[in-house]
Amino acid sequence: MNTVKRVRRCTICGYRVKTIEAVGDSATEFLMRHRKARREKQKRWWNSLSPEERRAWKKREYTRASARREARETGEPVEQIYIRWGCA
User: Fold this and answer.
1) 7 has which bridge partners?
2) Number of helices (H) and strands (E), helices first, in the chain?
3) Are 35 and 8 in contact (CB under 8 A)?
4) Residue of 38, 44, 43, 40 whose CA lies nearest to 14
5) pLDDT at residue 19 above 90?
6) Which residues contact 28 (CB under 8 A, 6 or more apart)?
7) Among candidates 17, 28, 25, 26, which has minimal Cα distance to 1?
8) CB neighbours of 16 closer than 8 A, spacing ≥ 6?
9) Rg (CA), the chain
10) pTM score, two decimals?
11) What is the b/e burial string over 8-36, where b = at least 16 CB atoms within 10 angstroms of the residue's CB?
């Protein structure tokens, strides 16, 4: 079987994936490998955090999501909501 070694880069995030592909490999298979590699990288990053860092990260993400939701509902800029909440 003919194979080709490639280094591909995601056009959105710039993440690089090294692949060995059979000639005629589809783009769908590449995307599946890319997503799997991203999940594994994210999992390694999450496991490297201490429990305190994980709690802080979750709290920060919850606050960001709440601010974005309120901004959508009120039409007020997210930055103003942060200032009103005392986060800025």
Assistant:
1) 18
2) 3, 2
3) no
4) 38
5) no
6) none
7) 25
8) 7, 8, 9, 10
9) 20
10) 0.53
11) beeeeeeeebebebeeeeeeeebeebbee
